[in-house]
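Input set for joint prediction.
Command: fold jointly, output tokens.
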Amino acid sequence: MDRLIQRILATEDEEFDCEQVAELIVGYVDMQVAGEAATQLLPKVKQHIGQCDACADLYETLLEVVLLEEKQALPDVDDLLDEIVAGDVVDSAAARPMTGAPSLTILPDLPDERPEPAGDRDQPSGALIPIPLTRWTWVARHAVWGWLAAAAALIAVVILGAWGQSQASEAARLRADLEFIARAERVIWMHGTEYDPDATGHVFMGNGDDRVLLVIDSLNPLPDDRVYQLWVTTETEDMLSVGTFSVGAEGEGRIWTELRPLPSNLASMFITPEPTGGSAHPTSDVVCAWGDRL
Amino acid sequence: MARDDTGEARQRTERTNQEWIRDLQGHGSAFAAAVRDLREYLLKAVFLYYHRRRSDLSHLARDELAQMADDAAQDAVLKILDKLDTFRGDSKFTTWAYRVAINQAAGDLRRRMWDNVSLEAMTEAAEDTLPPLLATLEDPTARDPDQRITRDQIWALIWQVIENEFTERQRAVFVSQYFNGVPPDVIAEQLGTNRNNIYKISHDARVKLKQRLEGLGFSDTEILATFQE
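tokens >
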């Protein structure tokens, strides 16, 4: 029922109807897969998708299929059929730690705070910019931001690229991750610091979901006795450890947590290398960060 | 792996938009290979759609599912061939084709699931059962009594608007869609209209509810916080 309330509150006086979205959805998905700022250029498509389950269903499947095709990772139909008939629950598979990044330790004492309401989230909004389809690419390159589309597409491509040779079970986890990413309401984009400038990290926060997906790329691999540790700080200067994790040989990592709601007043997120088992406080230089730690 | 005119193996994804159109508008082996490749692509899209809806399909046997998917992919190929000249080339051809296939699969599944449902009976039943249903949602264990009161107030207002301020058509659409989860196409079919009109009716209803909620004097954030408790 809270979904109904969200829909009522997100209602706009002028909305695209299903026919208008049907005309645009193919280009919208192609833009997302290309890492372009689809949600900024076509905010009313995103708004409609939030209101219409039928169009959301089409959009989410289309995005999934196109991303998989892009990486030549479309699954075998027999595998899919097996999973459907077996009633395979991909969502729970998604909660398993990634292959190659096995250890995520959730520290126990996070405060029980309410998640940030959807109404406050930094979603792009505004009127449709009437741009011919053939000009989308040019305009997107000059767009300031469109975080959800760009980040979701980029990270999905990173995920798929890193696991291009994935097995069927891994493909199922990928699909579940993509479903989560497509529905994510907030994305925090972390950048590498001077100590690891190529590193990037994205934290996807769910839609009415306490799970958090951390996707890491190009972090320097650490020796066996070291792990990375993710921290958050709040505007009231509390510092919390979110957990520890390892990365693969290419510095990649895809880590699920089931955090209780993150603080709504986040000031920063950052990663430091720490001894195995984690530290009570950061003991090394920050290698990747968002917010006032960058 | 598909083979081109020269018989050499090639990745299907190597076809450009122009090559897809050329081959699908052509004849002979190039046409046959393109149709076969397209059908393979679309079958995967159909199965990925089914995979997302697997909870609705768990009662079906493997063979039945496979046949459904084959039919959907085949119908989608025919539709694509039929309207090939409407492809404008401003997106990837396969993305455009996937949309047709996913819509086909969704339509087939919808017809299977909602074939014998009476919207009228559903709306009448909902009107009898919704107030008690809503009452059960008023969580007595909510930690903050003020939030509980706010939530009750909001639900009471929503029901009052649905019952007294919606038109009969708005009520039928809104209740069917949001309380019974009936897809808009099914509602449209039963009301003798199209999905676009259903969206517009639903939109007008939401606008009305939003205006009335705003009249309560709470901010959106306060309302959402109340329901996220």
